[in-house]
Design brief:
Elements (H helix, E strand, L loop, with lengths): L1 E7 L7 H15 L10 E7 L1 H4 L7 E7 L2 H14 L1 H8 L5 E12 L1 H10 L3 E10 L5 H11 L2 E4 L2 E4 L2 H4 L2 E9 L7 E7 L2 H14 L9 E15 L9 H7 L12
Antiparallel strand pairs: 1-3, 1-4, 2-3, 2-10, 4-8, 5-9, 5-10, 6-7, 8-9
Helix pairs in contact: 1-4
Length: 259
């Protein structure tokens, strides 16, 4: 399987709400693409600037999954012919940053994730993007990062993340950059709700010291997002993302989270 993350920054004249609504409309069309050209899984994560901190690095994160390179090629060809790329470019404040996953590791919460994907519901996530320390090779970084799971560098040394801030599932993505930005790592921490997300963000603000992780990470950035499942479209859950946008309800009748 091929997995990619696509990071967008919104056009400066669009509000967060306008950008999110327009992006959802474009992705609703992607959900209707021919089956052999549609991503196996596509999610849309809208960044919460009020939780992520001042001037978040990106405004949206798409997660794309494909069976193989041929499947990805068919999708990209369809997007070009359908005008999707042009519509996405019209929303963005610059070229998207595309990162391909070299190694995906579910460190914690595999059963929770399986249930999440089965139900196809929205969720909230805390993302961490990072570049590796210059002294580490890609292989060295990958091995050391796995050992680092569940802890952060604090002002008084290594700190274990408490249960209240750990989230329901934790995934490490070792990246093979396709763009110029060249992130090396992306952490996904899935949490139950906005309250749990804020609790985690506040704990990190009080305890995380980026200077203390300099032997592993060169730089890091955090994003708080609401993630919506675009595809696969699950029978009995919802018809497409456009209907979900219109009704403001998820397939279980609950109010859909909004940024």
């Amino acid at each position: 399987m091929i997995q990619r993350f696509v990071f967008f920054s919104r056009r400066s004249d669009l509000s967060t709400a306008e950008f999110a609504a327009s992006l959802r409309a474009v992705l609703a069309e992607v959900a209707k693409a021919p089956e052999d050209s549609r991503p196996s899984r596509l999610t849309c994560g809208i960044v919460h600037p009020e939780v992520s901190g001042a001037s978040p690095r990106h405004d949206a994160v798409l997660t794309e999954c494909y069976a193989d390179d041929d499947h990805l090629g068919r999708h990209l060809s369809w997007r070009g012919s359908a005008g999707t790329d042009e519509r996405l470019d019209g929303l963005a404040g610059g070229a998207p940053v595309i990162e391909r996953v070299a190694d995906r590791r579910v460190v914690r919460g595999e059963q929770w994730l399986e249930e999440h994907w089965r139900r196809g519901r929205s969720t909230v996530k805390h993302l961490a993007l990072a570049t590796r320390a210059g002294s580490l090779s890609a292989a060295q970084f990958s091995a050391r990062w796995l050992d680092h799971a569940g802890t952060v560098g604090g002002r008084a040394g290594t700190v274990t993340i408490p249960e209240a801030a750990r989230g329901s599932a934790y995934v490490q993505n070792v990246l093979a950059p396709e763009g110029e930005t060249g992130y090396d790592a992306l952490t996904e921490v899935y949490v139950e709700d906005r309250a749990a997300l804020r609790a985690r963000v506040e704990w990190f603000a009080a305890n995380f010291d980026p200077e203390a992780s300099g032997d592993l990470f060169a730089r890091s950035w955090f994003l708080a997002v609401t993630e919506e499942v675009v595809t696969p479209v699950l029978a009995g859950v919802r018809d497409d993302l456009g209907e979900r946008q219109e009704t403001g309800r998820d397939g279980n009748g609950a109010a859909a989270p909004r940024p």
